[in-house]
Structure formats: C-alpha cells, structure tokens
Amino acid sequence: MNRYARQICLPEMGEAGQTAIAAAHVTVVGVGGLGAPALQYLVGAGVGRLTLVDGDTVAMSNLHRQTLFRESDIGKPKATAAADTLRALNGDCRIETLIAPLDPANAPDLVRRSTLVLDCADSFAASYVLSDSCRAAGVPLISASVLGFTGYVGGFCGSAPSLRAVFPDLPDRAATCATAGVMGPVVGMIGAAQAQMALACLLGQTPSPLGQLISFDMQGFRTSGFRFDTAPDPRPDLAFIAPGAIATPDFVVELRGIDEAPAPVCPHARRLSVAEFADQKPRPDSDQRAVLVCRSGLRAWQAATALRSYWDGDISLVAMGDTPSKERSDI
Description:
The chain has 331 residues and is α/β, with parallel strands linked by helices.
C-alpha cells in the first residue's frame, strides 16, 4: 500500500494534493522543540525538499521538548542530528542543512528558494527578519512562539498581511525558556499545528491558514483565534541588519554591557544601556544611519523607539544572538 494512502483518500488531498506536497520546498528555521514535531509530520506527509536552518548544538536541557534528539546527540549540530533522523523516517524526502543561525544576510536567499517557510526559532529578530523577507518575496510564513504553558501559531505573508500587522511592536520584556520555563507537550502541540497549517497552505485549503492566528493556553485548557486578513500592514520602519552590514559612517550604539560583550560590535560603537540612552538622548547627524545593537533585538527595539520620538532618520537594528554555549535556551 502507498505510504501516503491514508491522506490521499481525504477529499481535500487526493493525488493532486500529494503531488503538490511532493513538489514543495519548505525551509524550517529552528530545529528545536517547535521544529521537532513540525519536521516529523512534514517528512511523514512526503514534503519533497526540506532545508533545516540552525546554528545551535543539542544540549541535555533541550531533550524534554526537542524529541528529534537522543542523549547520544548531545554536542552535535541540531540540523545534522535532525537530518539523520528525518532521512531514516522517509527516504523520499530530500533534506538539506545550513548549520548557521538565520540572519538578515542569509534570509532573503533562503526565502526566495522556498515554497513556504516555517519560523520555529522563537526569536524576536528571526521572526521579523523572516516576515520582512517573506513579505518582499511573496512567500508564505508559518510562525509560532511558546513560553510556559502558552503560545500561538499564525499564517503570515504570501496572500496575507505580515507578522508586523499583528505584532507591530516587541514586548516590554524578554523571557526565555531558560528563565521562565516551558512544557514540552505544549511546544509539541504548537509545532504540530505549524505542520498542519503548512500542509493546508501547500494544498490551497479553504479557509486559508494564511491570515489566521491560533492561541493556546494549556494551563487553562483554552484555545482561541482570529483572522487578520484585512489588518493594515505597516512599513518595516525598524528593520534588522547583519553585523557585517555596519559601515564606518554609521552612528552605532552597543547596548550590551561589558560582561555580556567585552568587545563592542565595532570599534567606533559607543556603549550605553537602554536607560542611559533614554536619559542622554544621543542624536546622530542628519546624514548618519543609527545602528542599535543588543543580543536578542529587544533592547535595540526599545532604544530605537526612544530615538524615533525625537529623530526621524534611518534606524537599523542588530541582534547579535547568544554567545556559544552547551546550554542554550532556544525553543
């Protein structure tokens, strides 16, 4: 019997749907707790080509929710370990890896080569970089985030507004799985929902998953959702750039402390905390670009919001990411 018989027999799928899935190239950014269920179900469904993007390695603290990995995988690149498991699940799928973090330099090319993109990184910067790139290329984006017992998944770009239409601003504070905790089954549920929305998009399902957001609260056992098809899509005023795109004439502010980043992002950067930035109100020259640098992008966004209140020049953000560690907190 055909391995896909149980889904081909669905009227919404059929042979034509299976052909569409087999012809698709899906890029998955983040091969962790969200990526694990999403990838297994995409491979199980017969997606023809998958690109796995992740620069992290497997850590012991990941294993309660990152179920593609085994204890013997600890220390291996996540993308490599995941690819080995997925190839054993379905030899029909062509699986490629990029052992590097997503950034504004590599995102546009990754997106352009994809039929659809899954954002499983649960990173402020990655989500906005992917959304801006997908919006520019007209490529659908299925993005999700989880913390504690709650999370969401949504279908953005393509025929729908971008992530900025629903989340125009970053939160006031950044919590991570390491600081706030996360339940493995909740991550698994939302990652599986990402896979289902991706497949529905590839099939052209009606109603479309694009323009739909679903929220999960598994402490109160509640789900909710809404459509945002007609939400206004703001221009990406505050966009992320790669560190290598910083130029000598730029007005650069390093928002990481010395303990976090002993060397600033570039020699001509001035070092200020967000509070100091808001208090001192530094002002670039009229012909300069302001570049604000931090780890996750959140402090850079906060400083940029303060700067925008009194200066209308060009502002770019840089998210440097975590320093290498065996105990990363990514979802």
